[in-house]
Design the sequence.
């Protein structure tokens, strides 16, 4: 086993958790074998005062010799504050925040470490997430075991590649070089607490400065829980707060990057909107109109304005049955865009 160059870990994997012992058990079960003799990785478990079996579960792994830092908050400080706490505590050069309901496959950590240690010295790595229900098939189907890795050397291209298949909000997908963003601190993140997108502080800061990014489409990261849109105001979180984080952490540094992110928010994220409309707690017609209009830009005849008219406004304003039909039609356009974007960057070896 390779020893670290110094006492500092190469990678910190941090798991914020709250009352999800059954999910956490699955995650720790696969990390145990991968990390039990891996000195390059620091593991942090940050417990938001869980009332379930989380403390006893964690202790059972400690008794088995699993080394990690376990922090148990005296009260539930909220998801965002727990994320920031993990970021502030992380000592590794690279940082990966993993949701307690997500799953890193056997051998996945070793692949991530090889990516980190490659000659490219990546600033940002995106792990394409897959659904937990597909895990058994992916393991047995040899045709699905070949990964696809692409190096991208400019932020706009990287964002476009990622947004074609997922998004930058998913906490478990983003590995960042923490050393490259010293301006992002626990204190500087405070302004975005309770926004449900506080993690965009380090994601956007890393993206803005990125000189080398890796898109990793491999069978490393799986998620299985249902989307949590029911627990939050999706319109506010994924539009208003997303845009606010963009202004804070990209600001005037890179207008091209901001425009690309807003365009993709309109084109790709609003495919969720019809589903959200079936859940009244998530959206209201008045609020939705205000939110999407903020994305349209000053002129509806601009490139962004036309995207807004085609990809967003009908999904908000059409009667629900027609919105469903329109969304399916837009799916064809999105697939064409995705296919074209999968050629962005340069193909590199699989790990």
Sequence:
């Amino acid at each position: 086993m390779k020893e670290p160059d110094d006492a500092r870990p190469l990678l910190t994997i941090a798991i914020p958790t709250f009352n999800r012992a059954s999910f956490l058990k699955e995650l720790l079960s696969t990390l145990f074998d991968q990390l039990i003799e891996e000195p390059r990785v620091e593991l942090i478990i940050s417990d938001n005062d869980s009332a379930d079996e989380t403390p006893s579960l964690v202790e059972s792994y400690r008794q088995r010799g699993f080394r990690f830092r376990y922090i148990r908050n005296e009260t539930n400080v909220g998801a965002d504050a727990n994320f920031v706490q993990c970021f502030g505590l992380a000592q590794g050069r690279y940082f990966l925040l993993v949701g307690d309901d997500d799953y890193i496959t056997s051998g996945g950590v070793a692949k991530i470490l090889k990516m980190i240690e490659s000659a490219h010295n990546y600033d940002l790595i995106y792990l394409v997430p897959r659904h937990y229900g597909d895990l058994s098939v992916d393991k047995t189907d040899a045709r699905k075991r070949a990964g696809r890795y692409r190096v991208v050397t400019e932020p706009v291209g990287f964002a476009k590649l990622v947004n074609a298949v997922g998004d930058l909000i998913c906490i478990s997908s983003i590995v960042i070089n923490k050393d490259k963003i010293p301006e992002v601190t626990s204190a500087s993140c405070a302004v975005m607490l309770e926004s449900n997108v506080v993690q965009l502080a380090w994601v956007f800061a890393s993206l803005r400065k990125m000189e080398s990014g890796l898109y990793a489409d491999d069978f490393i990261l799986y998620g299985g829980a249902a989307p949590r849109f029911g627990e939050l105001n999706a319109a506010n979180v994924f539009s208003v707060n997303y845009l606010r984080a963009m202004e804070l952490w990209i600001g005037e540094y890179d207008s091209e990057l901001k425009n690309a992110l807003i365009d993709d928010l309109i084109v790709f994220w609003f495919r969720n909107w019809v589903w959200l409309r079936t859940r009244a707690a998530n959206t209201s017609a008045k609020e939705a109109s205000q939110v999407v209009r903020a994305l349209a830009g000053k002129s509806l005849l601009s490139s962004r304005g036309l995207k807004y008219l085609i990809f967003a406004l009908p999904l908000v304003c059409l009667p629900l049955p027609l919105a469903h039909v329109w969304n399916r039609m837009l799916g064809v356009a999105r697939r064409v865009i995705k296919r074209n974007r999968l050629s962005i960057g340069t193909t590199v070896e699989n790990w």
